[in-house]
Amino acid sequence: MLPTHEHVADVQGHAIYRRRPGFEYTPVTLGKIASFLVRRPDGGVAVFAFLYSLLMGLGGPRPDEVRLLDEALHTIEDVLAGGAATTGHDQTYERHGDRWVPVDAPRWWIPTTP
User: Fold this and answer.
1) Residue 32 CB partners (closer than 8 Å, separation 6+)
2) Which residues touch 89 (CB under 8 Å, ≥6 apart)?
3) Which member of 8, 29, 82, 89 has the lowest number of beta carbons within 10 Å of its beta carbon?
4) Considering Cα of 75, then 80, then 84, then 87, what sign does the dihedral take?
């Protein structure tokens, strides 16, 4: 696996790796992004990316990134349980309220697969 990623879980034969350090500031979007690589049992790789807005912390407590990363990992686990992690397609999510919502081709993500 890439040296920038750490192994965080194994689920149904899939190895999940998170890019260090977790959420990273992205000035163009006023958000922070965390990305994960999932090595499938067949050797293929699925990509997952999660963005939350920095505006979430205005006027209140800062977002708990440890909790958000844990919820992102659970989201990936749910996708794997449903058999929907595909090689060659990035799966992207945005934080809306209290949950991760899938989004197609968001402007904040440059696809990693052709």
Assistant:
1) 23, 24, 25, 26, 51, 52, 54, 65
2) 46, 113
3) 82
4) positive
The CA distances from residue 11 to 47, 62, 109, in Å, are 15, 30, 25
- pTM, 2 dp: 0.92
For the stretch 5-50, pLDDT in tens is: 999 999 989 999 999 999 999 888 899 999 999 998 888 899 999 9
In the chain, domain spans: 5-101
For strands 31-39 and 14-19, give the pairing: antiparallel
